[in-house]
Amino acid sequence: MGTVKSPQAEKRLMGAGFFLDRYRAMGHELRGDERTRRAIRVNTLLASREEVVGRLEARGVKLTGIPWLRDGLYAEGGESSVGSSFEYLLGLYSIQEAAAQFPVEVLAPGAGDVVLDMCAAPGGKTTQAAAWMGNRGVVVAVDVRRDRLYALENNLERTGVENCVAYCGDAAGLYYGGTPFDKILLDTPCSGNYVTDRSWFSKRSIGDVEANAAEQRRLLGAAVGLLKPGGALVYTTCSLEPEEDELNVQWLLENHDVKMEEVRGPGSPALTEVIGRSLSPEVAKCRRFWPDETETQGFFVAKVVKP
Amino acid sequence: MRELKDFLAAVVAVYEPAGERINLNDRRFVVGADVAAQIRDRGRLVYAGRLLGRTRGEFIPGASLLRELGKMQGPNKVWVDEKVGWLFACGRDVFEESILRSEGELVEGACFLVMLGGDCLGYGRMEAREGGMLLRNVFDLGDFLRRERGIENASS
User: Fold this and answer.
1) For the whole model, what pTM was predicted?
2) What is the ipTM of this complex?
3) Which of A141, A157, A175 comes nearest B51 by C-beta?
4) Phi then psi for B69, rounded to 5 degrees?
């Protein structure tokens, strides 16, 4: 990992053909033009599912429950965008892609927990965690990018979150008072995926993927150190690339004292034979979301517990 | 703007949330004990607990205060229909003839919460105009969308 490649070699390791061949080798015949279904999440701090369904259906929006999510609904139709309705302004729901709603469900933060959201902006998962906690306990939300934190602040206010402390800084380097966290969500900056970014194939290369993977390992190591014994860490990316997913989990198992927890839900078990590497069978406890299987963006979710 | 100040003092007096007050970047927050215990690095802090409102110049109540005030007896209120409500949420003023009903006298200088059914969309101040009154928009929830678009434009 992290080897320097010539520009010519780098060019060969990018583009739709390269990545789609890679996914084919992992068992998925993807077209490269798969898209997600529009999804919203009911904000249970301010509204019930019934209220949101009733109010949006009166506006002509057709809503269908997402079977593997507690508060998620697919949204179709309607005269105006679900992003510009009274109900949205009032904070009764958030627009959040279905796969992106899954990590907080896996973390399952409770009312008394002190939770760290390490790369929190723009705040979709932060507000979801606060809703799971019923505005009790504390979510410490951190992001290094001030420009993205404005969106998080906007979301916290709109959705009525009252139990969050947000900081601008490197989540791995901030001083948290020495008290370890009950639960940590590490939704790392990653290479992303082509499903949510139409220009993805033309701008991503294996070099980017490896650089992101290195940064993710730095954050993963820090996260384990910030977790209390018995605490849970959920690691997630919206990348389909094994370097950022299975290989980082393998690195975590080899370098830190953590125990894998099985992630149950949609998608497939993570890969243990991938890009020429044989990984621990424990890695299969993670979950991979393939766009052709789940109608979501590419996604990866791992959960570990600190003994 | 004396009336606006009085109105804000009156509506905030109706609802005074408990907890420690924190002023941060021209905004006022209230925090409970659990949240206060997690505040370590004030220099990097950008948000804490519940945002009451903005403090640059006049205090402007934020969404959470408006949510509570909209449910309470006491503050002046006007009710509007969806169409007028949406225009208000887009930053427009409300003409007197568009007001369906009101609590409080529609006189120049008086301030009113703007209600759509049970939901508070913001508030404004009455001004005289030729042939009647106009509720001049001071703050509305559409501010969230305008801020979101501003953030997107700044990021792109």
Assistant:
1) 0.93
2) 0.92
3) A157
4) -65, -35
